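# step 3/5: fold
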Amino acid sequence: MKPLVECVPNFSEGRDTGIVEAIAASVAATDGVHLAGMEMDGDHNRSVVTFMGSPEDVARGAFEACRTARDLIDLRRHRGVHPRIGATDVIPFIPLTDYSFADCVSLARICGGEIGRSLEIPVYFYGQAAMSARRVELPEIRRGGFEDLVKEVRQEPGRRPDAGPDAVHVSAGATAVGVRDILVAYNVNLDTDDVRVARAIARNIRERNGGLPGVRALGLLLPGRHIAQVSMNLTDYRKTDMVQAFQAVTRLAEAEGAGILESELVGLAPREAMGGAGPEDLRMAPLDPARFLDYHIRLFA
């Protein structure tokens, strides 16, 4: 099998279709890159673009996407419920086949360095590409968001970037570039607008609080729909899959007197992450086969 790398950058724009489509088009125009998906969320005001290909081609696609986002997104006017530090908020590289995590770290460092030099956007390396223990976890880098980072980057040595300028880009902010394993972004929407319920559930299921293994979670209010959401990252779907996460949220919601409206997958996931369930078991809309990572990997086999 030839080396195959996935990249799943998140952009701080989820309402202007033209901007997100332009970013995706810049990826698709990169030779050797397969554009696997694009999703937008208006309440999060965030989009996710998924693509894959050879390591070098994927790195070029990530750079071009970051360049397009820099030119089209002004973070000073951005408002959304999801934490963010940049127009291109995060660029994760994920090795899929015949490519090691160590190789991926080198790729991420080279790509991040080029973003810093050529686009004048400060870069923080996270995950397995982190250059310090404090930056392994993405929430630590995002602490306080764009607004706090603008003030702190010059004043606090611990907030200085790993690559690029020592000042936050005036409109594009900063970017986190990292290496991680396959992650499943999974949300459960509640039948209440009481965000305190979602926050209590998130607090209980987070791994760091003694909850579910490999689960990060936030409780959010979606103002456009007037509902609360438990937004999760399943960082190891082999330890906690979507069924287990759904059941835990359901149980805790019922204890708070709330119910479940629906759940949703953001981006792609391995079929195995469904835990043997069908979309109907998770109150999800039917999933196209192209939403499964396995489908796209077979294209490169």
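# step 4/5: annotate
Residues 21 and 38 are 8 Å apart (CA to CA).
# step 5/5: archive (pending)
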